[in-house]
């Protein structure tokens, strides 16, 4: 089902640049005040392929300078292109929130595009028109995939694990290409995986499976829109070897120990915190308990002790910054229901009277750590933090197989896939 082909990557020459200085986080997690840092750190930073230095310049730009920059860096040798197609295996070693060291190994490939209704590449969240319009301008100008979609595949038995790890041995079909460390301390190692046997194994494994978009819904849908444009311009229904029929994707096993799925919490920004009796009245049938919360430093332990054990039930914790943590749960098992749906329908809608439209318009923020959510409330940027347990890979694959679209910011797959490890040019296939 999933067509994941080897390709001739364009990548930084480690003799010309320090890879740690030029890779950057995905464009949508770089804050406006962080752009200058990445632009100034290295003249060859991959930020130049993703964003303008100033946010206000985005509306007017056509990103024409990106194509010129890409061409210039290829001509002067900062970027090099491999002579033969390969898969590009990336190892990420990182510290999990609990303090343990984990490792995720995935690979970059050329992904054949498929419309969502084909159930080959499955989305799990809705997208916004603005970011897609911006990414489409960039793709038209660059005629290259400069950042990747992040896809999850299902490999409960770790059938591909040994083959992918072999790329780092430096012999046989593998070859180590470079390493880096990002600002968050995540360590990266990149290696080529080539050879007919290895390629056939990876390609055959993916062909039998559908994949779920973990990150990069806007990029994937932009690639689909660009494909429709190019097909219309060329007057053809499809042409399998056309570069616009594919995009750059990173694949990882959702069931590997290093595929970390974290919760994204909610902070209600303006609606007043409910009084204790309001919680009870608006959540009939829910059980609750109060825990003294001395300070934010005690939050992680409190959630681990009182919320995490309720992962198989509808459960959340509420924090209005007043020194108490209120934990709510239902006695019956969740079954196939998703807590992210329940928190939107039963909590945000019923307790706070917030519609999905109000949520999309900014009535709720979505911090990626409980500590950050607690700080937002205590700094006056919100009234109540709602802490959730993470979804499981089973939740994501089951829901997407049924065609369900989850509420926005339902999942946080960590670590992110940086921009700058590999690029894919379109002109090679034209």
Task: Characterize this entry briefly.
The chain has 430 residues and is α+β, with helices and mostly antiparallel strands. It is built from 13 helices and 21 strands.
Walkthrough of the structure:
The chain has 13 helices and 21 strands. The protein is an alpha+beta fold. The chain is globular, with a radius of gyration of 23 Å. The chain folds into two domains: 4-260 and 414-429, no CATH class; 264-389, no CATH class. Strands 1, 4, 5, 6, 8, 9, 10, 11 and 12 form a nine-stranded mixed β-sheet that branches.
**Gyration radius from CA atoms, angstroms:** 23 Å
Main sheet characteristics = 9 strands, mixed
Structural class: alpha+beta
The average pLDDT score comes to 93
Number of helices: 13
Write down how many β-strands occur, each being a DSSP E stretch of 2 or more residues.
21
What characteristic shape results from the CA principal axes?
globular
| Helix percentage range | 25-40%
List keywords for this structure.
alpha+beta, 13 helices, six-stranded antiparallel sheet, nine-stranded mixed sheet, globular, 2 domains, about 425 residues
Q: What is the topological layout?
A:
Layout lengths: L3 E2 L4 E3 L6 H4 L12 H7 L22 H12 L3 E3 L5 E9 L5 E12 L8 E2 L6 H14 L1 E2 L3 E5 L7 H6 L7 E8 L5 E7 L2 H12 L3 E5 L1 H18 L11 E8 L6 E3 L3 E3 L7 H7 L4 E6 L6 H8 L6 E7 L4 E10 L5 H10 L7 H8 E2 L4 H9 L5 E4 L5 H9 L10 E3 L9 E2 L5
Helix pairs in contact: 4-7
């Amino acid at each position: 089902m999933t067509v994941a082909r080897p390709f001739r990557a364009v990548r930084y020459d480690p003799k010309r640049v320090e890879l740690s200085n030029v890779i950057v986080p995905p464009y949508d997690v770089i804050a406006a005040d962080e752009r200058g840092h990445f632009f100034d750190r290295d003249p060859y930073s991959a930020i130049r392929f993703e964003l303008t230095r100033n946010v206000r310049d985005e509306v007017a730009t056509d990103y024409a300078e990106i194509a010129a920059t890409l061409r210039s860096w290829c001509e002067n040798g900062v970027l090099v292109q491999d002579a033969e197609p390969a898969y590009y295996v990336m190892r990420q070693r990182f510290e999990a929130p609990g303090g343990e060291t984990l490792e995720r190994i995935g690979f970059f490939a050329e992904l054949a595009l498929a419309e969502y209704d084909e159930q080959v590449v499955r989305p799990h969240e809705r997208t916004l028109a603005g970011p897609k319009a911006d990414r489409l301008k960039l793709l038209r100008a660059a005629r290259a995939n400069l950042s990747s979609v992040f896809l999850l595949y299902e490999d409960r038995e770790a059938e591909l694990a040994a083959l992918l790890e072999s790329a780092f041995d430096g012999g046989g079909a593998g070859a180590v290409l470079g390493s880096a460390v990002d600002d968050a301390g995540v360590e990266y190692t990149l290696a080529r995986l080539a050879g007919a046997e290895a390629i056939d194994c990876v390609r055959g494994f993916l062909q039998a499976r559908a994949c779920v978009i973990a990150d990069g819904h806007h990029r994937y849908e932009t690639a689909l829109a660009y494909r429709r444009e190019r097909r219309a311009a060329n007057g053809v229904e499809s042409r399998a070897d056309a570069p616009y029929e594919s995009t750059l994707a990173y694949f990882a096993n959702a069931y590997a120990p290093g595929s970390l799925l974290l919760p994204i919490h909610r902070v209600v920004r303006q609606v007043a915190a409910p009084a204790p009796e309001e919680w009870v009245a608006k959540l009939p049938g829910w059980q609750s308990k109060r825990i003294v919360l001395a300070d934010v430093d005690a939050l992680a332990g409190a959630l681990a002790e009182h919320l995490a054990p309720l992962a198989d039930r509808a459960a959340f914790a509420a924090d209005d910054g007043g020194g108490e943590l209120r934990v709510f749960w239902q006695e019956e098992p969740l079954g196939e229901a998703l807590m992210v749906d329940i928190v939107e329908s039963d909590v945000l809608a019923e307790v706070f009277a917030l519609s999905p439209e109000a949520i999309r318009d900014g009535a709720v923020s979505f911090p990626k750590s409980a500590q950050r959510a607690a700080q937002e409330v205590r700094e006056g940027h919100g009234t109540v933090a709602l802490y959730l347990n993470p979804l499981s890979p089973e939740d994501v694959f089951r829901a997407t197989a049924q065609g369900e679209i989850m509420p926005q910011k339902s999942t946080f797959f960590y670590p992110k896939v940086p921009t700058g490890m590999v690029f894919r040019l379109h002109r090679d296939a034209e």
